[in-house]
Every structure is written in structure tokens, then in C-alpha cells.
């Protein structure tokens, strides 16, 4: 006789019985009988129109239903405690399992750490790899044991270069170089030839880090000793945790103090560059005022010398090839500034004038290149390596400047040498007109030109010993006597061999009229020049016999003796051309560079790239 609608039972008259569960109320039968009888559908409509009153808020919050059943407060508390216990056990077993993998790896890495003479070996490739593995294992073990990392906010105050080494300020980021600096402590740093001593605070921090690492090693030794004990398996890294915490704290203290002082040292090392930058600014200001009409010649000369004094110190630190030499840059620059005019001086040949102008302009251009670098480098000062010799752009600039003022000092300030080199330039220019192959080599700057050039220099010396002696003294000084005037030993024999070959080539058949000496010497010069350009061992039209026959119609008839002498002389000439190049390669490179600048200015180095664009700035 009862109907169940939406999970609720209705009485016979359609009235719901009293609610019993949950502390509800009960409706008596008298109340049901007092209401008029109603049908099922009417009762259902009334229930839809009038929803039951909501339960109190406290009861609604406490009404947890699991599996269709409501739970009381004590039951709910017991369920939460059970779930938390399961989570904690899962985390504990996970930590224990990860520590069980990390701690043995750390112990193995610490045992395999290489040493040399009782000290850590981190400089060799093998030692560096071992230290990297060790520090990565330390980081892994600390994370496995859930050791919080010490604060590293101080890294935000580092320079941009050091911030690049520590991109994450919250990560431990143990670095081998810092570990090596602490374990193999030396309180002295040499930068650009200057000594810098680290403070006692950094020394104390290094000792603390050494002590902390010794504690880690002791904990690992204890772990190895008790590894087979059953109780040790339940607490895999309990004894290691305090040691790793102290190690991280000591590392943070040392890293902060050590790198902070390194930043100060690097700023002092870059001070050489910044001092030159400041002096260049003063020089630029004086030049601007001079262009506006102020008479500041003496001030400009004094400031140039002051600026070049700072450049000299910069050059000594950056250009290792130049160290130990005397710096005559200021004098050479003054000479170049007064010699750059293309007007002919008294008794000056065209070759000497061109040589003077080329050398002077090269020195001034190198000086301006140094100034241009110093104007650009402040924008990239953080990228300047504190060891200045590790900056390719600076080293190239200093090398160019050093070479330029050395050439100016050698050739422009020595009148005799300048005159001899000018005559050599004129001789080679004339040879280009006689031998088209040589002209093509000079225009294209062929590699073969650098084999032909020393042969021509030797021929010029042999035909003009009075002028050529000064040049040869710089190239092969050990083949001249003490007064540097007369060749000795094998070089003297070579001179005699040339004179004999020339006499044989100028000899005429019996009954022939005597040739004009100047014309005969000119023909011998042209013949030897053709042979020098062709090189030894040539055949066909360029062979000595063919070359001699081609010139016989002009002055003299060749014979077998002349051909043999010419071939022997060309072999000797080739041997001595190698001697000129190899005895002092630096002197020969300077000499050949000067000759090429005068002969082929169009192939000289340009401040622009091959594509015509300006070269990018290089620190």
C-alpha cells in the first residue's frame, strides 16, 4: 500500500512518512488523516512545487558521501589520516630509493678523484672530467636527500660575464674551476704581467670549503664501511646529509667572495684599455679645437706622446711578440707626420719619394686604426677579456701598429737605407717593363712572385754593391765582416761567381769588334733578369741557352761555356735566395712588404671587407 517516489516512501493516503534518518521529524497518523485524501499524481505535483527545506550549512559540509553512504566526522578523519600515511610512505620509499642510487655514485666518484703530488689534479683533461662527474654526483645526492640549496641571491650582483655562467640563481651549479681554486689554493693571480693578491677573507672561505669537503669524504668512508649492515640500508644517507648541507654553505661563502674579488681584478686589468680610451678622448678634443683655429701644436704633440705612452703599456700586455722591445712609437709617428707629403725632397729619386710616402701613410693609418678601436671598445668593455692577449681584435690592432712604426723607424729615420730601398724600388719597376711575366705577377700578387723577388734583390745587389750592401746587411748580416762592408766566406764566393759568369756572358768571338760596355752590361742584366723570373731548371724557350741565343743578335754570341756558367750561377742564386728568406724571416717579410706596397698599392690591405662592406668590430 505504499509508493516509493524518487527514493522517498509515501503513505497510503499519499502523505510521506516521517523522516527518521539524520535526526529528522516524524509526522503522526493523525496529521495524515486530518488532510483530505488526494491522488498519487496530485501528491507528486505538490512535491515538485514545494521542495524540501535545505539542511543546515554545518550538516551540508559534514555530509561526505562515499560509496553512496554518508560518513561521520570521526570516520572522515580516519580516512584522511590513512591517505596521508600512504602518501608519506610513498615519498619516503621514493627518497630512499633515489638516495640508494645517488650515494653509491658519489662514493665511487670521490674514490676515483685523481691527485698529483698529494693535491687535486683538475688541470689535466682526465682530472677535469673526474671533477665534473664528482660535482654532478654531489648535486644529485643533495637533491635525492631533499637537502635545500643555500640562498644564492648574490649572483644577481655579478657582471654580465659571470651571470652567463650562472643562469639560474637558485640552482647549485657547482663549477670545476671554483672547486679547483678552493682545493688547490694559491692567493696570487697574474694578469697582464701584474700581480694581484686575494684577501684573507677569500683564503678563510677556501679553508672552510676544504674542511667541509673533508667531512663529506669522512661520511662517505663511514658509509662504505657500514654498507653491508642491514640498518644502513634503511637510512641510506642519514649520516651524509649534514655533511652535504655544510658543504653547500661553505661553497656559497667561497663562491661569493672569490668571484667578487675576481671581478675587481678584471676591472683593474681592463683599466689599461680604459686609460688609453680616456687619453684618446683628450687628444680628439685638442684636435677639434685646433681645427677651429686655436694654435695648439705643442699641446697636440705632448698629448700624442702621452697617449702613445698608454698605448705602449697596452701593447706590452696584449702583443706578446713585442714584449721586451724598446718602444719608439712617438718618434716614429712624428717622423711619419713630417714625411707624408708627396712633394719631392732635395736629391730624392721617384722610388725614394714613393717609399717615403707609403711608409709614412702606413704608420699614420695604423695610428688612426688604434684610435678607432679605442673609440669603439667602450661599447663592448664587458666582452674584453681581462688577459688582453686573448682579445683577437686588440692583438691585431697592436701588431699592425708595432709593425708600422718599426718600418718607419728602420727606413725613414735612416737616410742611407731609405735611399738604397728607393733605388731597389726603381729597379724592380724597370724590370716590370722589361719582363711582362713579372708585371703580371705584381698585378695579381701571385705566390710565385715571392720566389722571384729575393732573386731580383740579389741580382740588384750584385750589380750595384755600393747601394745594395746596406740592404743586405739587414737581411744576412752574418755574411759581412765586422765593419759591415765586405762580404765574407761563402757569400764572397757567390759574388766572385757572379763576376765570372758576367764576364763569360759578355765575352765575344775572336775577330769581333768590342761592344759598348754599358750596352753589354744592360744585355747581361736583362738576360739574368729573364732567367731569374723563369727560375732554375726551366726548359724550352725559358732555358738559359734559349735566352742567351735570343739576345745574341743584339750584342754578343753565346757559346757552350757561357751557357754552363749561366746555369751554374742560377743554381747558386736560388740557394742564396732561400738563405735570404730563411735567415731572418721577420726582416725579409718586412722588406718584401715594403716593396709590394710600393709596387702594387692596389693589392694593399683595405679597411673594408672583400665585399666592400665595413669590417665588423672585433674585441
Instruction: Work out the oligomeric state of the chains in this entry.
Output: single chain
Give the termini distance in whole angstroms: 102 Å
Largest sheet: 2 strands, antiparallel
Q: Total strand count, please?
A: 8
**Low-pLDDT residue spans:** 1-7, 9-36, 57-68, 92-97, 230-234, 552-558, 603-614
Q: What level of helicity do the residues show?
A: 55-70%
How would you characterize this protein structure?
The protein has 619 residues and is mostly helical. 64% of the residues lie in helices and 4% in strands. The protein contains 24 helices and 8 strands. The strands form 4 sheets. The protein has a two-stranded antiparallel ribbon with strand order 1-2. It has a two-stranded antiparallel ribbon with strand order 3-4. A two-stranded antiparallel ribbon has the order 5-6. A hairpin with a 2-residue loop joins strand 7 and strand 8 (194-197). Helix 13 crosses helix 15 (392-412) and helix 18 (449-463) crosses helix 23. 26% of the residues are buried. Mean pLDDT is 79; it is low at 1-7, 9-36, 57-68, 92-97, 230-234, 552-558 and 603-614.
Can you give keywords for this protein?
disordered N terminus; elongated; two-stranded antiparallel ribbon; 8 strands; single chain; mainly alpha; 24 helices; 619 residues
Amino acid at each position: 500500500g505504499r509508493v516509493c517516489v524518487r527514493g522517498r516512501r509515501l503513505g497510503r493516503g499519499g502523505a510521506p512518512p516521517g523522516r527518521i534518518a539524520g535526526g529528522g521529524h516524524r509526522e503522526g497518523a493523525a496529521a495524515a488523516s486530518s488532510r483530505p485524501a488526494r491522488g498519487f499524481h496530485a501528491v507528486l505535483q505538490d512535491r515538485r512545487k514545494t521542495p524540501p527545506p535545505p539542511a543546515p550549512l554545518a550538516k551540508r559540509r559534514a555530509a561526505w558521501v562515499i560509496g553512496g553512504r554518508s560518513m561521520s566526522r570521526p570516520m572522515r578523519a580516519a580516512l584522511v589520516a590513512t591517505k596521508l600515511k600512504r602518501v608519506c610512505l610513498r615519498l619516503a620509499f621514493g627518497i630512499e630509493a633515489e638516495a640508494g642510487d645517488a650515494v653509491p655514485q658519489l662514493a665511487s666518484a670521490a674514490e676515483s678523484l685523481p691527485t698529483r703530488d698529494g693535491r687535486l689534479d683538475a688541470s689535466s683533461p682526465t682530472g677535469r672530467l673526474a671533477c665534473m662527474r664528482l660535482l654532478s654526483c654531489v648535486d644529485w645526492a643533495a637533491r635525492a636527500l631533499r637537502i635545500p640549496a643555500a640562498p644564492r641571491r648574490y649572483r644577481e650582483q655579478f657582471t654580465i660575464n659571470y651571470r652567463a655562467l650562472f643562469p639560474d640563481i637558485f640552482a647549485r651549479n657547482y663549477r670545476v674551476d671554483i672547486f679547483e681554486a678552493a682545493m688547490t689554493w694559491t692567493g696570487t693571480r697574474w694578469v697582464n704581467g701584474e700581480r694581484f693578491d686575494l684577501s684573507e677573507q677569500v683564503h678563510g672561505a677556501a679553508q672552510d670549503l676544504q674542511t667541509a669537503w673533508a667531512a663529506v669524504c669522512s661520511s662517505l668512508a663511514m658509509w662504505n664501511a657500514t654498507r653491508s649492515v642491514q640498518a644502513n640500508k634503511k637510512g641510506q644517507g642519514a649520516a651524509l646529509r649534514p655533511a652535504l648541507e655544510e658543504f653547500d654553505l661553505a661553497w656559497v661563502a667561497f663562491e661569493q667572495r672569490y668571484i667578487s674579488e675576481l671581478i675587481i681584478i678584471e676591472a683593474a686589468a681592463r683599466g689599461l684599455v680604459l686609460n688609453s680610451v680616456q687619453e684618446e678622448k683628450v687628444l680628439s678634443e685638442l684636435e677639434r679645437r685646433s681645427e677651429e683655429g686655436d694654435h695648439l701644436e705643442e699641446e697636440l704633440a705632448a698629448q700624442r706622446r702621452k697617449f702613445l705612452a698608454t698605448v705602449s703599456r697596452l701593447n706590452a700586455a696584449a702583443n706578446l711578440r713585442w714584449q721586451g722591445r724598446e718602444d719608439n712609437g712617438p718618434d716614429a709617428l712624428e717622423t711619419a707626420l713630417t714625411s707624408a707629403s708627396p712633394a719631392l725632397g732635395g736629391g730624392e729619386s721617384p722610388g725614394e719619394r714613393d717609399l717615403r710616402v707609403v711608409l709614412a701613410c702606413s704608420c699614420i693609418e695604423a695610428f688612426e686604426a688604434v684610435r678607432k678601436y679605442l673609440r669603439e671598445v667602450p661599447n663592448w668593455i664587458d666582452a674584453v677579456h681581462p688577459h688582453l692577449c686573448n682579445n683577437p681584435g686588440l692583438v691585431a690592432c697592436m701588431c699592425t701598429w708595432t709593425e708600422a712604426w718599426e718600418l718607419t723607424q728602420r727606413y725613414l729615420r735612416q737616410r742611407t737605407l731609405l735611399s738604397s730601398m728607393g733605388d731597389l724600388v726603381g729597379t724592380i719597376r724597370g724590370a716590370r717593363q722589361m719582363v711582362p711575366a713579372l708585371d703580371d705577377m705584381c698585378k695579381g700578387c701571385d705566390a710565385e712572385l715571392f720566389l722571384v723577388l729575393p732573386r731580383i734583390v740579389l741580382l740588384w745587389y750584385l750589380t750595384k754593391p755600393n747601394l745594395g750592401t746596406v740592404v743586405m746587411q739587414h737581411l744576412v748580416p752574418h755574411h759581412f765582416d765586422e765593419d759591415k762592408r765586405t762580404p765574407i766566406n761563402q757569400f764572397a764566393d757567390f759574388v766572385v761567381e757572379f763576376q765570372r759568369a758576367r764576364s763569360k756572358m759578355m765575352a765575344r768571338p775572336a775577330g769581333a769588334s768590342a761592344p759598348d760596355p754599358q750596352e753589354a752590361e744592360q744585355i747581361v742584366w736583362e738576360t739574368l733578369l729573364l732567367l731569374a723570373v723563369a727560375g732554375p731548371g726551366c726548359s724550352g724557350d725559358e732555358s738559359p741557352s734559349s735566352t742567351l741565343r735570343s739576345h745574341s743578335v743584339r750584342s754578343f754570341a753565346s757559346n757552350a761555356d757561357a751557357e754552363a756558367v749561366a746555369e751554374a750561377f742560377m743554381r747558386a742564386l736560388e740557394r742564396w735566395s732561400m738563405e735570404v728568406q730563411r735567415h731572418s724571416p721577420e726582416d725579409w717579410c718586412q722588406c718584401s712588404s715594403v716593396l709590394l706596397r710600393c709596387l702594387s698599392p692596389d693589392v694593399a690591405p683595405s679597411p673594408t671587407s672583400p665585399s666592400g662592406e665595413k669590417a665588423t668590430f672585433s674585441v
